[in-house]
Amino acid sequence: MTVLTLCLSAFSSFAQEKCVGTNDQFKGPVGLQIYSLRNTFNENVELGMEITENLGFHYVEIDNTHGMEPEEFLKLLEKHHLKPVSAHWDFNMFDKNPEQVIKEAKALGLEYAGVAWLPHEGDFDEAECRKAIEVFNRAGELFAKEGIKIFLHNHGYEFQPYGDKGETLFDLFVQETNPETVFLQMDVLWTVFPGQDPVALLKKYPNRFVTFHLKDLKKGVEGDLSGGTSVENDVALGTGQVNYPELLKTAQECGVRYYFIEDESPVVLTQLPQSLKYLESVHWEE
Length: 286
Fold this sequence. Notes:
Layout: H1 2-11, E1 30-33, H2 38-43, H3 45-54, E2 59-62, H4 70-79, E3 83-89, H5 91-96, H6 98-108, E4 112-115, H7 126-145, E5 149-153, E6 161-162, E7 167-168, H8 169-176, E8 182-187, H9 189-192, H10 198-204, E9 209-214, E10 216-217, E11 234-235, H11 244-253, E12 258-261, H12 268-281
Helix pairs in contact: 4-6, 7-8, 10-11
């Protein structure tokens, strides 16, 4: 508790920033996926929100409401001047009980509702991908009627090769879901780790990626299609393998609406201020 209190004091200077993590070229807005502070939230929800507020964040993405009713959780967020924009649910909820997800999303006042993991056994395959396509197309229509956009968050395993045109199962998902009701959230680490080019993906599917998970992959780490790596490979933005100036420039041109930092590392309290400072200084040639 003492360490976290000290952290609050150290972070307080960020609260003065109107648009934390942005600058004259990178406009953001930048939010926090509060899963980044899961250890704090699991022990003390309000302290987690206080740290988030003192870092200067205004927008957040929710992983869960920590046993609280959505309305109660929203009131606590509002107390700390935090606006929930997006949240994740289990895929099976989208499949079996989308009405409940809609109810919870509306209670939280969300613009976006997504899925971060598609169930699969062994390597992700075409049958599992087509199941996801069917569920997302069906759910997308229901959510759209309520003014909510749904999205799939990539996690790396979706890039299994597919077809004879050098494409992947991720391409199959994007191409066979309704572009008017089904959207995408790019997790940058889980795009680079399986060997994909995030800039090329944005250009291939402009306006489908509506939100980002800003993460960086430790230099020297070689990836694969497993969808898993050590959390210690999640490093402060700008210190890893990602060419962020080019990526952020392209993201702004291709319709990304919100940029959520998600830092899963064990030194998140150190890395979050570093990542924000990097975003506030990042520039590129026009």
